[in-house]
């Protein structure tokens, strides 16, 4: 959902120029990096719920849901408060130009206030997916993004009697959209309570330290993976802004366009995790293999389509987001380079989902951390800060990064280590 929100924000703010586009890009990267960092704990909830669903343990599902909500709310309050207190220091760290700094700060001071809503919402999405109700997050996303698009248009440009708020308007639209999303999540949870929990009631479920430990233990590797991703993401921004406002704005536009292809790939990876997890919970290991193969093939078809689209029409796509010819030319080149990595991104996403669904959240964390910190970041530093090469070289490094990750994942999947460990765990239980 957050990817679509980012696409809409960039599409609307991008028409205001390079500085507002860079500011929204920076503000959104910081906010969502922190939100998604702690939302990663929900991987533990999703896997445990999927396995409980496969085993038909509805009391366990209800208990996991309640404990996930508590975790999301508590962490959201802490992160939001810390963000508001340190917003000025966070933006200053990136050493951007003054107009970008001011606009990005206004974005963060607004969005940090709704951090508890955002983290809790995304954690609830993971619970719904673990239950097999992927339609609920999708319905919420459709409503929320329609609202965000309308609110962006009204608040950024100043329509229907509202003042033109620019970047701040995008921040308010994003914030209100997340509040609406959480309200809808609770509504769907209540409306579907009999199907999801059968006779169990959340209010009668006691809070138990062991359940918190179960969720946090399984989610911690994903949290660590997300931490290294978030830190590397913010550090890469710190390095990329040295290329200048035009280069960073073009990079942000290209990243936003590429996130459109991420959405189906990410969704299929989640489906792989849930379906494999449910199959293992039901002790149907043959079906787990079948789901693994099917989700990979589907992801390759979908993201292969985007690869063709990005290769054939990169400049026309960039022109949908801005009228600035310089941004269109550079962003279009980056989008064309992005076409080269779509199939490897699809493969890496699904392979990671398969491993997480089998209960192995550690391996994806190690792969992601190694390639991000040992390969991607050093090359960004080398190309931008040392050699002062164009940003196109950085994007070629991204292509190589995803290709190498896919090779490593493929070697693990083909050895069937993920399935063998699940079988061993079942034999020893």
From TrEMBL:
Q: Which GO terms describe its cellular component?
A: plasma membrane
Keyword list, A-Z: Antiport, Cell membrane, Ion transport, Membrane, Transmembrane, Transmembrane helix, Transport
Q: Where in the cell is it found?
A: Cell membrane
- InterPro entries, per the entry: MATE_fam, MATE_MdtK, MdtK-like
Q: Write out the transmembrane intervals.
A: 30-49, 61-85, 105-128, 140-158, 170-190, 227-249, 261-282, 294-315, 327-354, 366-387, 393-414
The UniProt entry, under Pfam families, shows: MatE
* GO molecular function terms noted in the UniProt entry: antiporter activity; xenobiotic transmembrane transporter activity
Tell me if Endoplasmic reticulum is a UniProt keyword of this record: no
Question: Which NCBIfam families does the record match to this protein?
Answer: matE (TIGR00797)
- Quote the protein name from its UniProt record: Probable multidrug resistance protein NorM
From what organism does this protein derive?
Answer: Thermosyntropha lipolytica DSM 11003
């Amino acid at each position: 959902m957050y990817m679509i929100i980012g696409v809409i924000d960039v599409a609307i703010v991008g028409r205001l120029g390079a500085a507002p586009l860079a500011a929204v890009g920076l503000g959104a990267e910081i906010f969502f990096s922190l939100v998604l960092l702690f939302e990663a704990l929900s991987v533990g909830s999703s896997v445990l719920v999927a396995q409980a669903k496969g085993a038909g343990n509805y009391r366990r599902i209800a208990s996991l849901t309640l404990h996930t909500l508590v975790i999301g709310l508590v962490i959201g309050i802490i992160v939001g408060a810390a963000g508001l207190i340190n917003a000025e220091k966070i933006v200053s760290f990136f050493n951007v130009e003054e107009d970008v700094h001011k606009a990005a700060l206004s974005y963060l001071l607004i969005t940090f206030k709704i951090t508890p809503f955002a983290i809790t919402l995304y954690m609830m999405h993971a619970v719904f997916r673990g239950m097999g109700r992927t339609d609920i997050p999708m319905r919420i996303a459709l409503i929320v993004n329609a609202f965000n698009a309308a609110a962006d248009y009204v608040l950024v440009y100043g329509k229907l009697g509202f003042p033109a708020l620019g970047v701040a308007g995008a921040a308010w639209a994003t914030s209100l959209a997340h509040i609406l999303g959480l309200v809808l999540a609770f509504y769907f949870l209540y409306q579907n309570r009999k199907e999801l929990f059968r006779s169990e009631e959340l209010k009668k479920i006691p809070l138990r330290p062991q359940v918190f430990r179960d969720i946090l233990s399984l989610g911690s590797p994903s949290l660590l993976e997300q931490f290294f991703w978030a830190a590397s993401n913010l550090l890469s921004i710190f390095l990329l802004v040295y290329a200048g406002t035009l280069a960073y704005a073009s990079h942000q536009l290209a990243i936003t366009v590429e996130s459109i292809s991420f959405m189906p790939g990410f969704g299929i990876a989640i489906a792989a995790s849930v379906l494999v997890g449910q199959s293992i919970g039901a002790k149907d290991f043959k079906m787990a293999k079948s789901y693994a193969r099917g989700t990979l093939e589907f992801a390759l078809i979908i993201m292969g389509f985007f690869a063709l689209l990005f290769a054939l029409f990169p400049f026309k796509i960039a022109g949908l987001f801005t009228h600035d010819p310089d941004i269109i030319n550079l962003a279009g080149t980056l989008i064309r380079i992005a076409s080269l990595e779509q199939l490897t991104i699809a493969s890496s996403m699904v392979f990671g989902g398969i491993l997480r669904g089998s209960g192995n959240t550690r391996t994806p964390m190690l792969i992601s951390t190694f390639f991000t910190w040992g390969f991607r970041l050093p090359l960004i530093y080398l190309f931008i800060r040392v050699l002062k090469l164009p940003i196109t070289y950085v994007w070629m490094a991204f292509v190589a990064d995803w290709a190498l990750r896919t090779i490593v994942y493929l070697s693990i999947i083909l050895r069937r280590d993920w399935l063998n460990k699940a079988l061993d765990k079942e034999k020893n239980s």
